[in-house]
Amino acid sequence: MSEFSFPKIDLHLHLDGSFRMKTLWELATQKRITMPTNTLSEYKEYIRRCSHAKSVNEYLKMFDHPLKVMQDEASLIRITKELIEDLAKQNLRYAEIRFAPQLHTQQGLSQTKAVEAVLEGRKQALFLYPGIQIGIITCMMSLGPISVNKEANLETIELCQKYLGKGVVALDLAGAEGIVALSDFRSFFIKAKELGIPCTCHAGDSEPVQSIQDAIDFGVQRIGHGHHLIDNLKLCQTTKEKHILLEICPTSNVQCQTVPSYQKHPVKKLYDLGVPVSINTDNMTLAGVTLEDEYRHCINEMGFRKKDIIQMNLYAIQSAFISDYEKQEIIQELKQALKEAEIC
Ligand SMILES: [Zn+2]
């Protein structure tokens, strides 16, 4: 049995970075998509090299080929289904999988069809693995000045509302940080708020702490990454009081060099300050990690104990975008696990 036998939760997991390599290769071959290498094993090595990028924006280039493959309903259904199957086999109890429907329209698929395909993959997987709960987050994209894809982002918000409660649980903003100020996206989040959509937002990873302040001003309930919060102790207090959770992805942060190393990652300091933080994988395949790998980094290199990992999972489920009723069982189990870990 795993040393981490308590309910495990991943709230920050990108579909297009968490596929099975073998499936991607098979689909690329079928579709005659030119890949950057000649064989699957070379492609694995290529991804491993690229994952040690010099910046987030360079890291994002790794998504080009997976996205080329994921442009039809069948591929989206299969990749979603397989990801949930893999998470269930890793004994996760709850995960939120995010993706940007507008990135799957390169060959004529509509955003609606992309969302429906992912929901179909989810449905098929949950039928086989009823022990795991899965929420889908639809991402708007930051691709440049907001005018570049304003219509596509507005469509994503509308779709998010349409499928809310039917498998979709929240809205996110992903993509390159720093091309434009996050504050430029204010009107999108205001609209989402008016529509009653729960929101998270990538901020404070490669961009300074001001972007976290902007996201909090938008009314988001969680922050994707957000480790630069450590640069503003007053804002740490605000996130604590408002129960705004940081979705921390240690390996991704180290690979993108937004933190110098696991040892110097500020997440333990944030945790000690009482800021709600959670541990997530970001991109299981592209980063080459599982949630348990992340926990081992937490314990071996970042100063956490096992009971802290349980507490972070408790923070995670408390901020999950599902109803209190749906979380209750997991909360009780984690509280029990925490009690037992404290006795040890
Ligand atoms: Zn992310």
General description of the model:
The protein is α/β, with parallel strands linked by helices. The chain has one domain (8-343): Metal-dependent hydrolases (TIM Barrel), CATH 3.20.20.140. The chain has 15 helices and eight strands. It has helices at 21-30, 40-50, 56-59, 64-69, 73-89, 111-128, 150-163, 186-194, 210-218, 233-241, 250-255, 267-272, 291-301, 306-318, 324-343, and strands at residues 8-14, 92-99, 133-142, 168-175, 200-203, 222-225, 245-248, 277-279. It has a four-stranded parallel sheet. A four-stranded parallel sheet has the order 5-6-7-8. β6, α10 and β7 form a beta-alpha-beta unit. α5 (73-89) packs parallel to α6 and α14 (306-318) packs antiparallel against α15. The chain is globular, with a radius of gyration of 19 Å. It starts with 7 loop residues before the first strand and ends with a helix. The mean pLDDT is 95.
